[in-house]
Amino acid sequence: MARIVMKFGGTSVADLDRIRSVASRIRRQVEAGDEVAVVVSAMSGVTNQLVGYCQSLSPLHDAREYDAVVATGEQVTSGLLAIALQTAGVDARSWSGWQVALRTDGAHGKARIEAIEGERLLARMRSGQVPVVAGFQGIGPDNRVTTLGRGGSDTSAVALAAALKADRCDIYTDVDGVYTTDPRIVRRARRLPKIAYEEMLELASVGAKVLQTRSVELAMKERVRVQVLSSFVDGPVPFENGTDSLLPGTMVVDEDEIVEKEIVAGIAYSRDDAKVTVRKVPDRPGVAAAVFGPLAEAHVNVDMIVQSTGADGTTDMTFTVGKAELPHAIAVLAAARGDIQYGELLTDPDVAKISVVGVGMRSHAGVASTMFRTLSDRSINIQVISTSEIKVSVLIASDYTELAVRALHSAYGLDVG
Ligand code: ASP
Ligand code: MG
Questions:
Q1: DSSP-based three-state secondary structure for 221
Q2: Phi, psi values for residue 411, rounded to 5°
Q3: Would 268 be classed as within a structural domain?
Q4: pTM of the prediction?
Q5: Number of domains in the chain
Q6: What is the distance between the alpha carbons of residues 336 and 360, in angstroms, rounded to a whole number?
Q7: Is residue 129 part of a domain?
Q8: Is residue 406 part of a domain?
Q9: Each residue of 16-52: pLDDT tens digit?
Q10: 152 in ligand 1 pocket by Cβ < 6 Å?
Q11: Would you list the DSSP string of 2-31?
Q12: Which site from 20, 43, 77, 404 is most exposed, i.e. has the minimal number of CB atoms within 10 Å?
Protein backbone atom coordinates (compact mmCIF):
# COMPACT_ATOMS: atom_id res chain seq x y z
CA MET A 1 0.00 0.00 0.00
CA ALA A 2 1.26 3.45 -0.85
CA ARG A 3 0.07 6.95 -0.07
CA ILE A 4 -0.28 8.88 -3.30
CA VAL A 5 -1.26 12.41 -4.30
CA MET A 6 -2.76 12.39 -7.81
CA LYS A 7 -2.92 15.77 -9.57
CA PHE A 8 -4.94 16.38 -12.73
CA GLY A 9 -4.25 19.39 -14.97
CA GLY A 10 -6.73 21.43 -17.00
CA THR A 11 -6.81 19.28 -20.14
CA SER A 12 -7.31 16.16 -17.99
CA VAL A 13 -10.55 17.61 -16.59
CA ALA A 14 -11.54 19.60 -19.68
CA ASP A 15 -15.09 18.23 -19.90
CA LEU A 16 -17.45 15.79 -18.17
CA ASP A 17 -16.18 12.80 -20.15
CA ARG A 18 -12.61 13.56 -19.12
CA ILE A 19 -13.74 14.00 -15.51
CA ARG A 20 -15.47 10.59 -15.62
CA SER A 21 -12.35 9.02 -17.04
CA VAL A 22 -10.24 10.64 -14.31
CA ALA A 23 -12.69 9.27 -11.73
CA SER A 24 -12.26 5.72 -12.98
CA ARG A 25 -8.49 6.12 -12.95
CA ILE A 26 -8.67 7.22 -9.31
CA ARG A 27 -10.96 4.28 -8.56
CA ARG A 28 -8.39 1.85 -9.96
CA GLN A 29 -5.72 3.40 -7.75
CA VAL A 30 -7.98 3.10 -4.69
CA GLU A 31 -8.90 -0.48 -5.60
CA ALA A 32 -5.19 -1.30 -5.83
CA GLY A 33 -5.16 -0.58 -2.09
CA ASP A 34 -3.51 2.86 -2.09
CA GLU A 35 -4.42 5.83 0.08
CA VAL A 36 -5.21 8.62 -2.36
CA ALA A 37 -5.60 12.40 -2.18
CA VAL A 38 -6.44 14.28 -5.37
CA VAL A 39 -5.58 17.82 -6.47
CA VAL A 40 -7.29 19.41 -9.47
CA SER A 41 -6.79 22.36 -11.82
CA ALA A 42 -9.58 24.34 -13.41
CA MET A 43 -11.07 22.95 -16.63
CA SER A 44 -8.78 24.05 -19.47
CA GLY A 45 -9.39 27.61 -20.63
CA VAL A 46 -11.42 28.55 -17.55
CA THR A 47 -8.67 30.39 -15.65
CA ASN A 48 -7.79 32.42 -18.76
CA GLN A 49 -11.42 33.41 -19.11
CA LEU A 50 -11.68 34.44 -15.45
CA VAL A 51 -8.45 36.45 -15.66
CA GLY A 52 -9.86 38.10 -18.80
CA TYR A 53 -13.04 39.13 -16.96
CA CYS A 54 -11.02 40.89 -14.26
CA GLN A 55 -8.79 42.63 -16.77
CA SER A 56 -11.75 43.82 -18.85
CA LEU A 57 -13.41 45.44 -15.86
CA SER A 58 -10.20 47.12 -14.74
CA PRO A 59 -6.57 46.61 -15.70
CA LEU A 60 -5.68 47.75 -12.18
CA HIS A 61 -8.10 45.49 -10.34
CA ASP A 62 -7.91 44.66 -6.63
CA ALA A 63 -5.67 41.57 -6.35
CA ARG A 64 -7.82 40.17 -3.51
CA GLU A 65 -10.91 40.22 -5.71
CA TYR A 66 -8.90 38.75 -8.61
CA ASP A 67 -8.11 35.82 -6.31
CA ALA A 68 -11.75 35.50 -5.28
CA VAL A 69 -12.66 35.23 -8.98
CA VAL A 70 -9.90 33.01 -10.40
CA ALA A 71 -10.00 30.52 -7.50
CA THR A 72 -13.51 29.50 -8.53
CA GLY A 73 -12.24 27.48 -11.51
CA GLU A 74 -10.64 24.86 -9.28
CA GLN A 75 -13.63 24.78 -6.94
CA VAL A 76 -15.89 23.78 -9.80
CA THR A 77 -13.65 20.86 -10.81
CA SER A 78 -13.16 19.64 -7.24
CA GLY A 79 -16.92 19.44 -6.74
CA LEU A 80 -17.57 17.85 -10.13
CA LEU A 81 -14.86 15.25 -9.66
CA ALA A 82 -16.18 14.41 -6.17
CA ILE A 83 -19.62 13.81 -7.72
CA ALA A 84 -18.10 11.66 -10.49
CA LEU A 85 -16.19 9.63 -7.90
CA GLN A 86 -19.28 9.11 -5.75
CA THR A 87 -21.18 8.03 -8.87
CA ALA A 88 -18.41 5.53 -9.57
CA GLY A 89 -18.83 4.15 -6.05
CA VAL A 90 -15.82 5.85 -4.47
CA ASP A 91 -16.23 7.67 -1.16
CA ALA A 92 -15.03 11.22 -1.90
CA ARG A 93 -15.51 14.86 -0.96
CA SER A 94 -14.24 18.20 -2.21
CA TRP A 95 -11.99 20.54 -0.21
CA SER A 96 -11.26 24.15 -1.05
CA GLY A 97 -7.96 25.69 0.04
CA TRP A 98 -9.36 27.35 3.17
CA GLN A 99 -11.11 24.17 4.27
CA VAL A 100 -7.88 22.13 4.29
CA ALA A 101 -6.42 24.67 5.44
CA LEU A 102 -3.64 25.49 3.01
CA ARG A 103 -2.11 28.64 4.51
CA THR A 104 -0.20 31.13 2.36
CA ASP A 105 1.42 34.51 2.75
CA GLY A 106 -0.53 37.61 1.76
CA ALA A 107 0.89 38.14 -1.75
CA HIS A 108 -2.43 37.95 -3.58
CA GLY A 109 -2.13 36.59 -7.10
CA LYS A 110 1.27 35.01 -6.42
CA ALA A 111 1.06 33.75 -2.86
CA ARG A 112 3.52 31.28 -1.37
CA ILE A 113 2.45 28.33 0.72
CA GLU A 114 3.45 28.60 4.38
CA ALA A 115 1.76 25.62 6.01
CA ILE A 116 -0.71 22.87 5.27
CA GLU A 117 -2.86 21.42 8.02
CA GLY A 118 -3.07 17.90 6.69
CA GLU A 119 -4.41 16.08 9.76
CA ARG A 120 -8.06 16.12 8.85
CA LEU A 121 -7.36 15.02 5.28
CA LEU A 122 -5.20 12.18 6.57
CA ALA A 123 -7.88 10.97 8.94
CA ARG A 124 -10.38 10.84 6.07
CA MET A 125 -7.90 9.06 3.83
CA ARG A 126 -7.26 6.46 6.51
CA SER A 127 -10.96 5.77 6.67
CA GLY A 128 -11.02 5.23 2.91
CA GLN A 129 -12.33 8.59 1.71
CA VAL A 130 -10.69 10.40 -1.21
CA PRO A 131 -10.23 14.13 -0.62
CA VAL A 132 -10.47 16.15 -3.84
CA VAL A 133 -8.57 19.37 -3.17
CA ALA A 134 -8.93 22.51 -5.28
CA GLY A 135 -5.40 23.35 -6.44
CA PHE A 136 -3.93 26.81 -7.01
CA GLN A 137 -5.66 28.33 -3.97
CA GLY A 138 -5.12 28.88 -0.28
CA ILE A 139 -6.03 31.23 2.52
CA GLY A 140 -3.97 34.30 3.43
CA PRO A 141 -3.20 35.94 6.79
CA ASP A 142 -6.07 38.35 6.06
CA ASN A 143 -8.44 35.35 6.03
CA ARG A 144 -9.12 35.83 2.34
CA VAL A 145 -8.70 33.48 -0.60
CA THR A 146 -5.27 33.61 -2.25
CA THR A 147 -3.95 32.03 -5.46
CA LEU A 148 -0.43 30.77 -6.11
CA GLY A 149 0.35 32.21 -9.55
CA ARG A 150 -0.36 30.65 -12.94
CA GLY A 151 0.33 26.95 -13.10
CA GLY A 152 0.21 26.88 -9.30
CA SER A 153 -1.79 23.69 -8.87
CA ASP A 154 1.40 21.68 -9.49
CA THR A 155 2.80 23.41 -6.43
CA SER A 156 -0.39 22.69 -4.44
CA ALA A 157 0.02 19.00 -5.26
CA VAL A 158 3.71 18.79 -4.33
CA ALA A 159 3.14 20.75 -1.12
CA LEU A 160 0.26 18.48 -0.18
CA ALA A 161 2.38 15.40 -0.91
CA ALA A 162 5.07 16.78 1.40
CA ALA A 163 2.57 17.61 4.15
CA LEU A 164 0.93 14.17 3.94
CA LYS A 165 4.33 12.45 3.69
CA ALA A 166 3.07 10.76 0.54
CA ASP A 167 5.18 8.14 -1.18
CA ARG A 168 4.65 9.83 -4.53
CA CYS A 169 3.03 12.79 -6.24
CA ASP A 170 1.64 11.73 -9.63
CA ILE A 171 1.07 14.70 -11.94
CA TYR A 172 -1.33 13.76 -14.74
CA THR A 173 -1.18 15.95 -17.82
CA ASP A 174 -1.60 15.73 -21.59
CA VAL A 175 1.90 14.43 -22.31
CA ASP A 176 3.22 11.11 -21.09
CA GLY A 177 6.33 12.49 -19.46
CA VAL A 178 9.33 14.74 -19.86
CA TYR A 179 11.07 14.45 -23.21
CA THR A 180 14.64 15.10 -24.30
CA THR A 181 13.15 18.04 -26.20
CA ASP A 182 9.80 19.21 -27.58
CA PRO A 183 8.50 16.23 -29.66
CA ARG A 184 6.61 18.69 -31.89
CA ILE A 185 9.99 19.94 -33.12
CA VAL A 186 12.03 16.75 -33.00
CA ARG A 187 10.06 13.64 -33.86
CA ARG A 188 12.89 11.47 -32.61
CA ALA A 189 12.79 13.00 -29.13
CA ARG A 190 12.41 10.41 -26.42
CA ARG A 191 10.77 10.20 -23.06
CA LEU A 192 13.09 10.25 -20.07
CA PRO A 193 12.08 7.52 -17.59
CA LYS A 194 13.89 9.45 -14.85
CA ILE A 195 15.23 12.96 -14.51
CA ALA A 196 17.13 14.59 -11.64
CA TYR A 197 15.47 17.38 -9.65
CA GLU A 198 18.19 19.84 -10.69
CA GLU A 199 17.74 18.99 -14.36
CA MET A 200 13.99 19.34 -14.17
CA LEU A 201 14.36 22.64 -12.37
CA GLU A 202 16.69 24.03 -15.06
CA LEU A 203 14.51 22.69 -17.88
CA ALA A 204 11.35 24.14 -16.34
CA SER A 205 12.99 27.52 -15.85
CA VAL A 206 14.25 27.73 -19.44
CA GLY A 207 11.06 26.87 -21.24
CA ALA A 208 10.03 23.22 -20.80
CA LYS A 209 6.45 23.77 -19.72
CA VAL A 210 5.57 20.40 -18.18
CA LEU A 211 5.81 21.43 -14.53
CA GLN A 212 5.64 24.80 -12.83
CA THR A 213 9.17 25.79 -11.77
CA ARG A 214 8.17 26.44 -8.18
CA SER A 215 6.70 22.97 -7.82
CA VAL A 216 10.03 21.44 -8.83
CA GLU A 217 11.89 23.68 -6.38
CA LEU A 218 9.59 22.51 -3.63
CA ALA A 219 9.84 18.84 -4.63
CA MET A 220 13.62 19.10 -4.54
CA LYS A 221 13.65 20.79 -1.15
CA GLU A 222 11.14 18.39 0.42
CA ARG A 223 12.43 15.35 -1.51
CA VAL A 224 8.98 14.55 -2.92
CA ARG A 225 9.09 11.90 -5.65
CA VAL A 226 7.18 13.43 -8.54
CA GLN A 227 5.96 11.39 -11.47
CA VAL A 228 4.69 13.01 -14.69
CA LEU A 229 2.08 10.89 -16.46
CA SER A 230 -0.54 11.22 -19.17
CA SER A 231 -4.20 10.99 -18.23
CA PHE A 232 -4.91 10.27 -21.91
CA VAL A 233 -3.11 6.94 -21.99
CA ASP A 234 -5.06 4.10 -20.50
CA GLY A 235 -2.92 1.71 -18.68
CA PRO A 236 -2.51 -0.15 -15.45
CA VAL A 237 -2.15 1.69 -12.20
CA PRO A 238 1.35 3.23 -12.14
CA PHE A 239 3.84 1.25 -10.18
CA GLU A 240 7.56 1.14 -9.77
CA ASN A 241 9.20 -2.04 -10.87
CA GLY A 242 12.85 -1.14 -10.79
CA THR A 243 13.44 -1.15 -14.52
CA ASP A 244 13.68 2.46 -15.63
CA SER A 245 12.56 1.88 -19.18
CA LEU A 246 9.33 0.24 -18.04
CA LEU A 247 8.19 3.16 -15.90
CA PRO A 248 5.05 4.64 -17.39
CA GLY A 249 5.94 8.37 -17.28
CA THR A 250 8.89 10.37 -16.05
CA MET A 251 9.98 10.12 -12.43
CA VAL A 252 11.69 13.20 -11.01
CA VAL A 253 14.19 11.89 -8.52
CA ASP A 254 17.46 12.35 -6.75
CA GLU A 255 20.48 12.30 -9.06
CA ASP A 256 21.86 9.16 -7.36
CA GLU A 257 18.81 7.19 -8.40
CA ILE A 258 19.56 7.56 -12.09
CA VAL A 259 21.55 4.62 -13.33
CA GLU A 260 21.71 5.27 -17.04
CA LYS A 261 23.05 8.83 -16.86
CA GLU A 262 23.37 10.93 -20.01
CA ILE A 263 25.68 13.93 -20.13
CA VAL A 264 22.88 16.02 -21.59
CA ALA A 265 19.36 15.19 -20.39
CA GLY A 266 17.43 17.63 -22.51
CA ILE A 267 17.28 20.66 -24.77
CA ALA A 268 14.80 23.44 -24.11
CA TYR A 269 13.92 26.61 -25.95
CA SER A 270 12.02 29.73 -25.11
CA ARG A 271 10.83 32.65 -27.17
CA ASP A 272 9.72 34.58 -24.11
CA ASP A 273 12.74 36.87 -23.93
CA ALA A 274 13.80 40.07 -25.70
CA LYS A 275 17.30 41.39 -26.22
CA VAL A 276 18.36 44.85 -25.08
CA THR A 277 21.66 46.53 -25.99
CA VAL A 278 22.82 49.68 -24.28
CA ARG A 279 25.50 51.03 -26.60
CA LYS A 280 28.48 53.22 -26.01
CA VAL A 281 28.47 53.51 -22.26
CA PRO A 282 31.60 55.21 -20.83
CA ASP A 283 33.75 52.30 -19.61
CA ARG A 284 34.44 53.03 -15.95
CA PRO A 285 33.79 51.35 -12.61
CA GLY A 286 30.11 51.41 -11.75
CA VAL A 287 28.63 51.20 -15.26
CA ALA A 288 27.04 47.80 -14.70
CA ALA A 289 25.51 49.05 -11.47
CA ALA A 290 24.24 52.16 -13.25
CA VAL A 291 22.49 50.04 -15.90
CA PHE A 292 21.17 47.16 -13.80
CA GLY A 293 20.44 49.05 -10.57
CA PRO A 294 17.44 50.98 -11.92
CA LEU A 295 16.13 47.85 -13.68
CA ALA A 296 16.26 45.88 -10.43
CA GLU A 297 14.54 48.69 -8.56
CA ALA A 298 11.77 48.58 -11.14
CA HIS A 299 11.51 44.77 -10.66
CA VAL A 300 12.59 44.04 -14.23
CA ASN A 301 14.24 40.62 -14.22
CA VAL A 302 17.44 40.45 -16.24
CA ASP A 303 18.62 37.05 -17.40
CA MET A 304 21.59 36.67 -19.76
CA ILE A 305 24.24 39.41 -19.79
CA VAL A 306 27.24 40.11 -22.00
CA GLN A 307 29.52 43.14 -21.97
CA SER A 308 31.86 43.97 -24.86
CA THR A 309 34.40 46.71 -24.61
CA GLY A 310 35.50 48.75 -27.60
CA ALA A 311 38.85 50.50 -28.21
CA ASP A 312 37.32 53.95 -27.79
CA GLY A 313 36.82 53.77 -24.03
CA THR A 314 33.17 52.82 -24.29
CA THR A 315 31.42 49.54 -23.72
CA ASP A 316 28.23 47.84 -24.93
CA MET A 317 25.96 45.98 -22.51
CA THR A 318 23.67 43.36 -23.99
CA PHE A 319 21.15 41.44 -21.90
CA THR A 320 17.74 39.81 -21.99
CA VAL A 321 14.50 40.62 -20.21
CA GLY A 322 11.08 38.98 -20.42
CA LYS A 323 9.29 40.07 -23.61
CA ALA A 324 6.35 41.32 -21.58
CA GLU A 325 8.72 43.51 -19.56
CA LEU A 326 10.46 45.08 -22.56
CA PRO A 327 8.40 48.33 -22.67
CA HIS A 328 8.99 48.76 -18.96
CA ALA A 329 12.75 48.16 -19.35
CA ILE A 330 12.94 50.71 -22.19
CA ALA A 331 11.15 53.31 -20.07
CA VAL A 332 13.44 52.70 -17.10
CA LEU A 333 16.60 52.97 -19.22
CA ALA A 334 15.35 56.10 -20.98
CA ALA A 335 14.74 57.73 -17.61
CA ALA A 336 18.24 56.75 -16.43
CA ARG A 337 20.00 57.94 -19.57
CA GLY A 338 21.44 61.03 -17.84
CA ASP A 339 23.15 58.84 -15.22
CA ILE A 340 24.30 56.05 -17.51
CA GLN A 341 25.29 58.36 -20.39
CA TYR A 342 24.84 55.77 -23.07
CA GLY A 343 24.92 56.55 -26.79
CA GLU A 344 22.09 54.41 -28.05
CA LEU A 345 19.48 51.87 -26.93
CA LEU A 346 18.72 48.92 -29.25
CA THR A 347 16.10 46.24 -28.70
CA ASP A 348 15.24 43.00 -30.48
CA PRO A 349 12.24 40.87 -29.55
CA ASP A 350 12.90 38.26 -32.26
CA VAL A 351 15.28 36.10 -30.28
CA ALA A 352 15.16 32.61 -28.81
CA LYS A 353 17.04 31.13 -25.91
CA ILE A 354 18.25 27.59 -26.48
CA SER A 355 19.50 25.64 -23.47
CA VAL A 356 21.17 22.28 -22.98
CA VAL A 357 20.81 20.81 -19.51
CA GLY A 358 22.39 17.83 -17.79
CA VAL A 359 23.99 16.94 -14.47
CA GLY A 360 26.69 15.08 -16.44
CA MET A 361 28.18 18.47 -17.33
CA ARG A 362 29.64 18.69 -13.87
CA SER A 363 32.08 15.93 -14.71
CA HIS A 364 32.36 16.14 -18.51
CA ALA A 365 34.18 18.87 -20.39
CA GLY A 366 33.24 19.87 -23.91
CA VAL A 367 29.45 20.21 -23.67
CA ALA A 368 29.56 23.94 -24.37
CA SER A 369 32.06 23.61 -27.20
CA THR A 370 29.91 20.93 -28.87
CA MET A 371 27.00 23.36 -28.70
CA PHE A 372 28.96 26.23 -30.22
CA ARG A 373 30.43 24.06 -32.98
CA THR A 374 27.06 22.55 -33.87
CA LEU A 375 25.49 25.98 -34.20
CA SER A 376 28.38 27.41 -36.19
CA ASP A 377 28.22 24.43 -38.59
CA ARG A 378 24.65 25.54 -39.33
CA SER A 379 25.77 29.20 -39.64
CA ILE A 380 23.67 30.16 -36.63
CA ASN A 381 25.07 33.21 -34.89
CA ILE A 382 25.27 33.19 -31.09
CA GLN A 383 24.38 36.57 -29.63
CA VAL A 384 24.67 35.97 -25.88
CA ILE A 385 25.87 33.02 -23.79
CA SER A 386 25.16 32.14 -20.19
CA THR A 387 26.04 29.08 -18.17
CA SER A 388 25.40 27.43 -14.85
CA GLU A 389 26.89 24.29 -13.39
CA ILE A 390 24.51 22.04 -15.33
CA LYS A 391 23.27 24.30 -18.16
CA VAL A 392 24.51 26.22 -21.18
CA SER A 393 22.14 28.72 -22.79
CA VAL A 394 22.61 30.73 -25.97
CA LEU A 395 20.57 33.49 -27.51
CA ILE A 396 19.99 33.25 -31.28
CA ALA A 397 17.65 34.74 -33.88
CA SER A 398 14.25 33.15 -33.28
CA ASP A 399 13.94 32.08 -36.95
CA TYR A 400 16.57 29.43 -36.27
CA THR A 401 14.92 27.90 -33.20
CA GLU A 402 13.79 24.62 -34.81
CA LEU A 403 17.00 24.16 -36.77
CA ALA A 404 19.12 24.71 -33.66
CA VAL A 405 17.07 22.38 -31.47
CA ARG A 406 17.16 19.57 -34.07
CA ALA A 407 20.88 19.94 -34.70
CA LEU A 408 21.71 19.92 -30.99
CA HIS A 409 19.45 16.96 -30.31
CA SER A 410 21.44 14.92 -32.81
CA ALA A 411 24.79 16.32 -31.76
CA TYR A 412 24.35 15.08 -28.20
CA GLY A 413 23.20 11.67 -29.38
CA LEU A 414 19.66 12.08 -28.08
CA ASP A 415 17.79 11.03 -31.23
CA VAL A 416 15.88 7.81 -30.72
CA GLY A 417 16.45 4.81 -33.01
N1 ASP B 1 -5.81 26.94 -13.23
C2 ASP B 1 -4.59 27.63 -12.89
C3 ASP B 1 -3.92 28.13 -14.16
O4 ASP B 1 -4.40 27.90 -15.25
C5 ASP B 1 -3.68 26.81 -12.09
C6 ASP B 1 -3.18 25.55 -12.75
O7 ASP B 1 -3.84 25.03 -13.64
O8 ASP B 1 -2.13 25.07 -12.36
O9 ASP B 1 -2.91 28.78 -14.09
MG1 MG C 1 -0.13 23.22 -15.49
A1: helix
A2: -60, -35
A3: no
A4: 0.88
A5: 1
A6: 43
A7: yes
A8: no
A9: 999 999 999 999 999 999 999 999 999 999 999 999 9
A10: yes
A11: -EEEEEE-GGGGSSHHHHHHHHHHHHHHHH
A12: 20
